[in-house]
Design goal:
Blueprint (H helix, E strand, L loop, with lengths): L1 H21 L3 E5 L6 E5 H23 L1 H31 L9 H14 L1 H4 L9
Helix pairs in contact: 1-2
Length: 133
Amino acid sequence: MKILSRALFLLFILIGVLVAVSNTQTVQLALWPLPHIIVMPVYLLVVAMLMLGVLAGLSMGWWAGRHHRRRAREAGGEAARLDREVARLRAAQAAAQPAAPGGPAPRDQRALERQSALVAPELGTRAARGPFS
């Protein structure tokens, strides 16, 4: 994609150079309410009009996207508020829970032992075994 965009950019530059080289005649530009007449080459007039068109299109796109930008700002603020609330609730929950002793509770330990005895009976015995026995 990067190569395609660069190739198109170079193509547009080449077309612009060809237009500039082939249109060197001068034109008179009279801006009606002003008494001045501007004399310039045709290619400068074409380039100036293209630039005005690009700027007008960019400004219209920016103006059309203002609603989306406002909604994104509001959603970002709401997400930050919810993150702060989650952090506050987690801190409150951690403060409310009593400190658990190290390891699982005795009831949980018995359940784990029963489960391991069902899955693999040799794991239920507490005999020391070597790595290859």
